Amino acid sequence: MNEEQICDADTVNKCGGGTKMKTAYTMFYEQLQDSIDTAWNQAEEIHSGLDEMTDEEIIETRNALKNRANKIMCALDSYAKSKEELT
Questions:
Q1: Could you give the number of structural domains in the chain?
Q2: Local mean pLDDT, 10-residue blocks, the chain (87 residues)
Q3: At what angle do helices 24-51 and 62-76 cross, to 10 degrees?
Q4: pTM (2 decimals)?
């Protein structure tokens, strides 16, 4: 195994006794998973909130809904291939 995947003999103590180091793929995957989790949580908040609101309340909370949608877009921005600019 190469140095990127696990600690070599000289750095075993620094790495906690042979604990695997994170590869670039692992770090990318963790970042992607975190972004997906963030987007999912924000979308779920919108969904559950809409079920509890009247039409009038939805209109009144338009800015809050836009802010949540913006958080979703920010979380997924690095991964989206087809994006439209918002005004």
A1: 1
A2: 45 54 90 92 88 89 91 89 65
A3: 160
A4: 0.60
